[in-house]
Amino acid sequence: MVFKLPVFSFYRHYLRQVRRLPHSYLRIKASDDFRALAATPTHKSQLRNSRIKRISKDLRRIGLAVTGRQDAFSYILDLAYGRRGKLKWELMEPLLTQANVPSLPEPIIHSRSSSRPPVYSAELSALLINTASRTNKSLELHQLKFPPTLSSRANPTSEEARLLGPLSKRLEFNTRWRYFTREWKKVYPPLEIAVKGNNGLLSTSVSDVLRAEGKIVGSQDQGLLDGIKEMVAQNDTTLLDGSVVVIKHCWEEFLSSY
């Protein structure tokens, strides 16, 4: 089995497979994964074996992807462009930060400044209410202000609050944050943020986005979206280092969410 190979032989084999796919992040991920594996103390055999098996699983999927398995290729696309795994968090983190917000909401529990409700950035709000950028049904703007999972008793003027008493502030705080966390995880992370310039055209340059007080994601201004569009424009079968992989349908489906 692959994971019984010496680590460096395993790494070279992994890179040979990854180079057959046009996704630079997979090579970065391979380097990170094997660096973590090499740094694992020998006495922590359970952790070491767990990491080897996870890498082996990814390698098997990559092998299936380069031979034309549509489900495997779709999985690799999700991995390469941050729809799963560590990269998803890295792309989403700038949109989730609660620091440097111009006007912080008042704490739910007045005596505790740490009890502020979550702040939905303009970029995150746009993703949450857009059907194409969600793994399921999009949200309505009013749901960001008052989550559907939150009891109407959180509104002190509601009939329920009048009859049953106001909702616990601690419960309101927990409910709002659980909803925020649950819903952002259903979002496809953006490859780049675009803003409208003075000429009316969209721009993804870092300087233009910062000028518009937008947030910069990790893949900003790298041309990834244009690269995907070029892939879609190719023929139904694309030669990748001698392996014929039917990928156009996967690319088209992937592109439809941007």
TrEMBL record:
Source species, domain of life = Eukaryota
Concerning Pfam families, the annotation shows:
LYRM2-like
The residue ranges of the LYR motif-containing protein Cup1-like N-terminal domain are 11-92
Please identify the protein, giving its name as recorded. Dna repair protein rad5
Q: Which organism is it from?
A: Lentinula edodes
